[in-house]
Amino acid sequence: MVTSSYKPQPGRFLISEPFMGDPNFQRTVILLVEHTAEGSLGFVMNRQLNVLLQDLVEGAPVSHAPVFMGGPVEQNTLHFVHRLGDRLAGAREIVDELYWSGDFEQLKKMIEEGSVKAHEILFFVGYSGWSPGQLETELERKSWIVAPSNIDFVFTEDYEDLWQQILRDMGDKYKVLSNYPTDPRLN
Fold first, then answer.
1. Which tens digit of pLDDT belongs to each residue from 44-103?
2. Contact present, 178 and 164 (Cβ < 8 Å)
3. Residues 131, 134, 139, 142, Cα dihedral to 10°
4. Are strands 73-82 and 121-130 parallel, antiparallel or unpaired?
5. Pick from 89, 118, 95, 90: which is nearest to 31 by CA?
6. For the segment 160-172, what is each residue's pLDDT rounded down to a tens digit?
């Protein structure tokens, strides 16, 4: 399987190899938000749910920002990445112009006031996590391709085809992977 020369770090993407059998991660794109000696954490970017913030959080203001299944870990939690920067107290910078978390009560007020637009924030139910050394082991097994940071892919209009889009954007050897059938036996 093809690998990349990029190393995992916040803001980069993990692209699942084409034949990953784990249904939680088959053909997924994960935005890494944390990668340290203590482990790694990220959110699946291409499993959009058919719900909105106000469907998940009682009393939340109306928001049309997309909500995704962030991963199989703690699916009773809500996370968010955004472009709000220091406008939102407690926001943690992932890379330039991309932030994770912050004061949720302040965020709700900002949404209610209309100072947060739907294209500035993404919500995630649950997350994807790796214990110390686990992601490195999976990378050695070639389960993931690390792709460079690109905020345009975080705030895209087409999350359904994100797996193929990022692979194509990485160049010719990855473009071939983007065309692999989901099940080659059916080809």
1. 999 999 999 999 999 999 999 999 999 999 999 999 999 999 999 999 999 999 999 999
2. yes
3. -120
4. antiparallel
5. 95
6. 999 999 999 998 8
DSSP state of 46: S
What are the sequence ranges of the domains in the chain?
13-186
User: For 92-141, what is each residue's pLDDT tens digit?
Assistant: 999 999 999 999 999 999 999 999 999 999 999 999 999 999 999 999 99
Strands 121-130 and 67-69: parallel
Q: What is the CATH number of domain 13-186?
A: 3.40.1740.10
Name 53's Cβ contacts closer than 8 Å, sequence gap at least 6: 60, 61, 63, 65, 67, 111, 123
Vertex 29 angle, CA 139 and 159, to 5° = 170
Q: Are 92 and 101 in contact (CB under 8 A)?
A: yes
Neighbours of 76 (CB within 10 A): 6
Say how far apart CA 93 and CA 56 lie, in whole Å: 25
Per DSSP, helices labelled H in 20-70 are: 53-56
